[in-house]
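hiii so my PI (J.) wants the whole complex modelled not just the main chain, which honestly fair. so below is everything: three entries, each one labled with what it is. i double checked the lines twice but i was tired so who knows lol
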Amino acid sequence: MPELPEVETTRRGIAPALIGRRVVHAIVRERRLRWPIDRHFEAAIEHQWVRRVERRAKYILIGFDAGTLILHLGMSGSLRVLDAAVPPKLHDHWDIVLDSGKVLRFHDPRRFGSAHWVEGNPLEHKLLAKLAPEPLSDAFDADYLYRATRKRAVAIKLFIMNSQVVVGVGNIYASEALFRAGISPRRAARRITRAQGQALTQAIKDVLAEAIEIGGTTLRDYVNADGLPGYFRQKLFVYERDGQACRVCKSPVKQFVQGQRSTYWCSVCQR
DNA sequence: ATGGGCACCTGGCTGC
DNA sequence: TGCAGCCAGGTGCCCA
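here's the output for the full assembly
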């Protein structure tokens, strides 16, 4: 899936086409996403005006007067804004047709994405209530991260991917941030030094901000609201570069599995 | 509380 | 050419 930069790029891309528009119709073709789409989904949003398009972690929040749509793109999801006349393709699971003649269309081959309609404060919803700070916020700072690592035996890579520690750091940017901070992904969280905690905090912020700047990372199927890929792949130091020369020291990038996910790192640059 | 592993699903690629 | 096996931007949930 899209990680935080891809979700944020999507949010920025769809927002101008949505805010202030009215929903004329909603069409669900496939309800079996990660959780089945509620049968009241279509009726809940029809005829409502979109007021806000926000993001919390990797969730996109589309706010209406009567409630909020909480969307997740899963591993292979994407949201695009198209002319309503464009016919849907395989795995285009739902449409929100707008009074502008445009449609917000959700595409997700693996169906790990989700859509929830909630009334009341969306941040109190079960999926959002226990999430840690946003990585690009002031609440996520070196002091916070260092304190959180104390007494934690888990490997630092798994630690920074834990949404109860910090949100939005997925498999690509976890490896990339650790490379930039010079920390081995296997290091126990409680073994990092204060200086390493500082470097890691900054690396996470930098890598996410830089990726957002150029539209995120497209590895296989991610596209933004206009159907275009992101270009951060060209800036990756280690992710999916196993066997290739480290961009800093020229020794081969290594790969191994942590928590059933591939980790990429340079054993010379990272300790 | 913490950590580890599984489940959900389709498609693309590799190697026989 | 066919097909089995493996792998992929996530994360909630169950178990020890």
